[in-house]
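Sample entry (763 residues):
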Amino acid sequence: MGASAPGAPARLETLPNTKLLTLEGDLAAEMVAGIDRFLMRELEASVKMRADLWGRDYTSPEAYARSVAPNRERFLKYIGAVDDRGPVTALEFVGTTSSPSLVATGAGYTVHAVRWPVLDGVDAEGLLLQPDGDPVVRVVAIPDADWSPEMLVGLAPGVPPEAQFARRLAENGCQVLVPGLIDRTDTWSGNPRIRMTNQPHREFIYRMAFEMGRHIIGYEVQKVLAAVDWFTHDAGADDAHIAVWGHGEGGLLALYSAAADPRIDTAVVSGYFQSRQNVWQEPIYRNVWSLLHEFGDAELASLIAPRALIIEACRGPQVDGPPPARDGRKGAAPGRLVTPPLDSVRSAFERAHMFYDKLEASANLQLVVSGDGTGQPGTEAATKALLGTLVSDAGAPAAVKAPGEPPTDLRGAYDPRPRLRRQFDQLCAFTQALVKHSARVRREFWEKADTSSIQRWRETCTSYRDYLWDEVIGRFPPASRPPNPRTRLAYDEPKWKGYEVVLDVWPDVFAYGILLVPKDLEAGERRPVVVCQHGLEGTAQKPVHRDMGTAYQAFGAQLADRGFVVYSPQNPYIGRDKFRVLQRKANPLKKSLFAVIVRQHERTLEWLRELPFVDPERIGFYGISYGGKTAMRVPALLEGYALSICSADFNEWIWKNTATHRRYTYMFSPEYEMFEFDLGHTFNYAELAALIAPRPFMVERGHHDGVAPDEWVAYEYAKVRRLYAALGIPDRTEIEFFDGGHMIHGKGTFEFLHKHLKWPLPK
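Predicted structure, serialized as C-alpha cells:
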C-alpha cells in the first residue's frame, strides 16, 4: 500500500483548511483511553447530576411519597421488576416420604421447607422459621448468593454461628422466610449440546434477561416481594410489621426491595451499602442500566425514607472473579467483589442522612459497624436495632436473647443443588418465553407508526427514534469542542490520496479516521462519500489496505478507485476488555458505547459536509461485522446518512443475543458488551431498519457466515422488505446472498451505492 514512512516529507501534506496532525503512536488505543477518561469523569459527576431527576417534596410523608413515586417506577423498570405477580395466599410445604417438610426444631421455632409462587412458572423456594408464638416481626432474611438458606439458619456449614441472622431472628420471636438465591457457580451455564461456559449462573441469566428488559436482580426482588405479599395476607387485619435483612447479594436485594415496596417497614443492609461509582468493577450481573444516572445507594435510601433503614458495615463476599476458565468453559465477564470500604460506607450513609434529616426522620437511619467494618454480619447491635425499630410500640426487648444452639436438619445429608437447579431453570424458561413473545410486543410498541405515506412515516417515527436514542443507546450532549481538524497525508495511490484525520468531540474524546480523496476531482465538483466502517478489533486502516485479509476486500480502496470519496472511521470497539469496560462504565450512566460512537459520527458528518468536494446529500454508510452493527444503529439515529448497508451482521438480533438452543448466540461467547437493555421489546433489526427508511437500505449476506444462519437473516429481512413495499418504495431496499463467509462481497452492494448515491458505474 502507499502509506508514507514516518518522517517522510509527504506526511507534511495536509487537507486544505486543516492543521497538521502531529499525534503519533496507536491512535485507536488512544481514542479508547480518552473515552475511558471521559466516562470516569461522567461517573464522578453523576452524583451531583442526579438531583435534576428528583422533585422531592418534604412537606409531609404523604407528599414525599407522591413526589418520589415516578423515580420508584423508573427504578422498577431498570431492575426489570415489571411483571405482575400472582396472589400468594399460602406457602406450600415442600416434602416427600423420604424428605419431610419439617426440617428442624430450634429454640422456640420450627423450620419448614417451603415454596411460594412469584411469576408465571417461577417459584421462590427456601425455609420458613415459624416461632412458637405470635410473631413479633415478619422478616425476609436474604443470604448472600453463595449461602444456602440452610447455612443462614445453621443447618449446614459455611456461615459462622454469629452471622446466622435468620436463626437469631427466629430465636427472638420473628417469623422468618429465607429464600434461596441463584449462586455464582457455573454448573449449568450453557447448553451441553452446544457449548458450556464459565459464566456464573447469575451472569448467564443476566445476559438473556437484560436484553428483554429484565434482570436477575429484578427477578429476585420479585421473590422477596412475593414473600411480602404472603406476610401481608397472613397477617390479616393485624398490622403486619415487615422487615428485610440481607447480606452481600442479599444486602443488595434488601436495599432494592425496600426501595421498591413501601410495605416494608425496615431494611437491614449488611456488607453492601456504599458509594457505587465503581460498580463497573463488580460482576456484570450487578450492571443496572441507568443506575448511577438516577440511583446511587443514597438515592435508593431516599426511596425508603422515612421508613427505617439500618446499614451494617461488615465483611462482604469476597469474589475474585468468575469461575476459572478451563477446557470447554470460557466466556465470562470479569468482575470482583470486596468488602465495602468503611469510608465509602460512611460517605454514602452521610448522603442518605440528608434525605432523612429533611423528613425529620434522622432516628430511622442507623449505621452499625461490625468490628472495624470487616467483622461478621448479624451483629447483636443490628439485631437489636431491627427489633427496636419495628416493635417499639409494644416495647422493644431490653436485650437480644442469648444465642441458642443451631438446629439439626432432620432430612439428613440434604443436597440443595436440585432446588437451585429448579430455580435456575425456571428463570431461564421465563426469560426464553419473553423472547418467544417479543415479536408481538414489538408490534404493539410500534402501533403508532403510520405507513400511509412516506411523510407520515417520517413524522410518526420521530418518537421511536428519540426512544431508541434516549432509552436504548443513550444520548450524550452534542460535541462541546470545536472540531479543530488535523490531517496528514498517509497514502498516495495512483487514483487517490489518503489522509489521517482527527476531529475533537469532547475533552479527551476525538474522532479519528482516514479520508480517501480521488485525484481526478475537478474544480467545484462535489462527489458522494461512502463511510466504510471496520469490524470488531479492526482499525481505520483495514478497509483501506489491500493486504489486510480477505474479509475486508479493501472495500474502501476499491470504492475510492471507482471515484467515490471514502472515509474510514475508527470506532472504539478495539482492545478487548479495554473497550468492553467502556460499556460497563457507560451503562450505569444510561449510556452505551454507541452513545459515544453516534456523537463521533455526528461530528464526522458535520466535517465531511463542509468539505468543498463533498456532496452533503450523498453520504452513505457501509459497515461490516461490528461495523454492520454500527450500520444498523448510527444511520437509524443520524439522518445525515443518505443510505446504509449492513454487511456480515444483519440477522434476527434478539435471538442472536438470547437464544440458548443455537450455537450462533452471544449467550456462550466473551462478547458480554453486546446486550442492550430491553432491546428485545422495542427494536430488532427490522425495527432499526424501519428508522432508516425511507432512505435506501441493503443487506450483504454470505451463505457461510457464522454470524447466523440464512434462515434468521431472511426471516428478519422479510419484515424490512414488506415495510418498504408498504411505503411504495420496494426498489430502495435489497438483500444480496453470495457464496462466501464473513466478508465483504462488493458486487451488489457496489451497484447499490452507484445507483442510490448517483455515481456512474466504472466503464
